[in-house]
Structure formats: structure tokens, C-alpha cells
Amino acid sequence: MSRQDQLRKRAKELLANKEVVMVLGYRAGKRPGTATPVFVTRPEDVDTLIFDDRCGPNLAAYLPRVKHRGKIAIVAKGCDSRSIVSLLKEKQVDRGQLMILGVGCEGVKEDGRLSDSCTTCAHPNPVICDEMIGEKVAEREPAPDLLAEFEKLSPDQRWQALMDDVSRCIRCYACRQVCPNCYCPTCFVDANSPQWVGKTTAGSDNMMFHLMRAMHMAGRCVECGSCSRGCPMGIDLMKFNRKVAHIVRERFGAVAGLKPDEPPALAAFDPNDKQEFIR
Amino acid sequence: MKPRTVSADELAGLVAGWETSAAVYAPVKVKDWTEFRRVSSLAEADLTQVNTKLSARGLLFPQCETMFRFETSRPDKAEEADQPEAQVILGVRPCDAAGIAVLDKFFAGQGETDTFYRRRREKTTLVGLACSAPADTCFCAAVGGLPAGTRGLDLLLTDLGGRYLAEPLTDNGEAAVKDLPEAAAADLAKKKEIADKAAVAMGQRIDTARLKQLLDSADSHPVWEDLSLACVNCGACTFVCPTCHCFDITDETSKGKGARLRVWDTCQFCLYSQHASGHNPRKTAASRFRNRAMDKFKYTVDMIGEVSCVGCGRCVRECPASIDIRETVETLMTVLPEK
Fold this sequence. Notes:
Number of strands of chain A: 8
Radius of gyration of chain B: 21 Å
Helix content of chain A: 25-40%
Strand content of chain A: 5-15%
Structural class of chain A: alpha/beta
Radius of gyration of chain A: 19 Å
Number of helices of chain B: 12
Largest sheet of chain A: 6 strands, mixed
Oligomer: heterodimer
């Protein structure tokens, strides 16, 4: 039985037996080569479910929006599962209300090309799941550090490169909206009394938004690459997030979204913290 | 006004001529796509790709526009913003030009005229480029347009292979090409062949009249909730749309000097409909998703007598969740009950 058939069969059982109220997965998009999230609630609709290299969107981002419905089954690639771990750590979802259907992922494609973030992925299999659908995939040798070239530039050149990138930003907030970490009811950029970040698309306002967003990702971003893939203007937002993840890895020895019971790197208090100022 | 033919060299000459008295904008290659950028010669333009990243709307209605400047110590005085310069936009696809014709109705139609839009529009010449090979996201012909449509344009170019057919549509367009050789019957026949072939690739015509009728009583139908689940509530679809025209007004001040700006806004943001009282009539994602579909296919029919989707397909191409408005419409036409 193919992985897709297994997925449909299991989804049908879960819905028919009322073990879950919804299966959150992917269906084929109308445009060739695309997949769109689907929210299956009736056993007779499971045949829309697919899983292959079109399935890019990180489904964990939808959990905070549907969790009130009851127990949800969610199709999770390696990165989606890591985002679920992050949401569990931050107490945004209840483990008992989730049925994680793990799938091994060979990487997702955009216009036929392997997504940048997938080339550096060290966790193509789910790090947490209730059951695997299909076999685990072989761990891949991650591509060399995508920041290496960028980091060879001088600080001025780096600033200019980032500025060139973010100056194209149209402030649609697709990056934020597709991100499982961005579940705040009011984002700092939408706070308007007082207004923290200017609403214009001038380079400085755009840079302020992206830098502040990157800071909020520290210790939380699982590098799924949804933001870069989702950006309509083709801005490589992962440049910010990758850098932040590298720093957290170096300074805190922490990698986001691997262990549910490990405290969040930047949101935990320890009376024995090695930094004196925080004790 | 007679159709003419223009060689690539002659087109370069036209651009050079326009450039002496106006800013010339054209699609320019950026990474894997094209964007409208100011060019100083035809050589900088890339007229081979179908739809630019953003539509030409931003050249008439910039994402961020200064309305006036002021000093905080002198609240009674305001300094007018800079006057826009004359511009020629080359390589506008017929869907985008139709989008500008729709914006014309909103900003400079009946009743109030929007000064900021009007003064840019009056100084704008639109030189269109017919589509011979639509993208898989294109559906202009499904919503009443055509790949070689002329609406909104001053001049329409059709690539006949190394040279162009140039059809003037306004006095402005006529003035630009009047000295060029008249097109032969064979040129016109070739253009028709290209245009007809492109139109066939667009898929079924949407029955927008029936859709409007269905939407008239669809406010509280549960289909909106189902359709909106995949939507992440970003503003990408509305910002890339050639006909969306909502804006917010904001003041930016620094060290006693300030400017009143208008910046694009979108009904997809929760903040858009938030009242000062805190009440928000469109608090749910489903209600915002509904608003966009309703706006394109019902509200604007009520307001300006036509749908405001021109089928450019940018929302389809750029949606981070791969939501396809063609599919949304199909679902609505299937699910919504006749009155």
C-alpha cells in the first residue's frame, strides 16, 4: 500500500471511529505543482489527502486556529513536528488533543527546485509522533552552511545586502502568518497605541519589522523555511532566522523543536543561570 | 487611428524619445521574475515574461505616498507634496491595464475625485503588450478580458516575432506612432491568430452575473468558514492585486517635522476593520476571507457596475497557502443555493 493510501485509510478510521474531529493534511492545489492545507472532517472526504514534495506549508501554524474544535490529527513532516514541539513547550497546544501522523520528508519543492531550507534539514523524519505513515526516510547529509557566503561579506556589505532584500518587502505579513511561532493575538507591528513600528515600506520601517521578528524567533525557529517560501516578493527571510538559530546553538547549545520537556532557550528562568545579571 | 508596425530598433527609438520628457517604466528582470522599474533604454527592459511581480498599480497609487508635509510647531501650515512627473509605462499586460481602468472608476469616476491618483493618471501613458503565451495562473478571458484586450491603454503592442504591431487607442498613443509604417493585412491577420490562440488557453468563462446573484444572499453561508480555513490571513493577495485600492493614513514625525502619508491597507488584516471603540465587525478569518471574494464579485458590481477581478492570477501565484480564486469561485458556484 502506498504511503498516500495508508494516510487516507488511517484518516478514514480516525474520523469514522470519532477518535479525532479533524484531519489536518494537504490536498493538491488547482495549479500544478502546488498543495494546499485541507481540513477533513468527514470520513468520505479523505481521498483528497496527499503527501509528496508539493506539501510545503507548515501545518503546525494552523493548530492554534483549529484546536478549539477538539482532538486534531495532523500530518507532520520533520519540520512540522518540530514546530509542534515548540508549540507544546510554549503551552499553545495540548499533547492529549493531538494525534500526530508522522511522515518522512524528502524535501519540498518550489517550481521544481528543492527548497533552500530543505537542503540544510537535519531532521527529515518527525521528532515526535503517535504513528508513522509510511517508512522513515534516510537522514540526508545537510548542505553546507547557507550563511557562509553571506558571512564573508563586510558588515557594510551585509547591511546593504539585507537592506536590498527587505526594501522589496510589501508588508503583507505572509512570513508572519505562515509561521507556527507567530500566534500572538496582537503582533508588535500591529500595536498602534502607541505605534511601535512605522507603517511605511521605507527601508528603515521594513528592516525594523524584520529584525524585531527575527529576535522573536530566537530559540524558537525550527528553520522550516515557510517564511521564505511564502514571501510573495521572494525575500530570503531565513537569512535572519538562520543567523539567530546559529547564535542560539552556539551560545545556549540549544536547537529548537527537538525535546518537548527541555525548557525554551530564551524563555526559562534558572536560579543557577551562569549569567549573573539574570539570577 | 491606423495600426502601425514597429521594429525593435524603432521601439528603442520611441523609448529614447519618451525618456527625454517622461520617466519610462518597464518590466525589468529581477532574479526569476520581472518588476516594473524605471529604465533609460529599451535594452534594460524584459518584455518576454507574462506578469510582473507586482502590477503597475503602484506607479499610479504608490504603496506609500506623501500627501503633505508639516511642522509640528505650525499646525496651521501644510506644504504640498511633490507633483508627480510625467510617466510612460511600457509593457503593461492587458489585464493590468484593465485593472487601471477599474481603479480609474474608483478614484476618478463618479462623485469625488482622488487628487493624488488623478494627477498621476493624467500624466501617465500606458503602452500595453498583448500576451501570446499566458501563464498557468492567467484567467483574464474567464472574467471578461482578453490577452490582447485594449481597455485602459493608449497603445497596444503585439509581438509579431522581432517586430511589433502597434495599435494606437488614444490621441496620446496615436502621437507616439503616427510616423511609423502602416501595418499590412498580413500583420493584422497574424496578430488575430496570436490573440485567439492565447484566449483559448484561459479556460472556461466564469458566469459573473450568476455568481453575483448567488453572492447577493450568501452573507451567512457556512461555506465561508470552510473556504477560509486554509487562508493564513496575510495581505499578499490584496497587495499583488491590480484593483485593490484600500489605504490607511498615518503621520510620521521626527524632530518637529512630519509628513502625512497614505499607505496601502488590506481588508485581510484584522486591524483594518477595528473600530476605535475596540469593536471589530470583521473579527473572524472567515469574515475577512468572505469580504475579499464578495468585494471582487459582488460589492464592486454594486458600486461601479463590474467585477473587480481582471484575471491576472497574481493572487493565485503568490498565495503562501496555494489558495486559488478560480477554485474558490467554482466552489461558490457549486455550493451556494439559487434564490
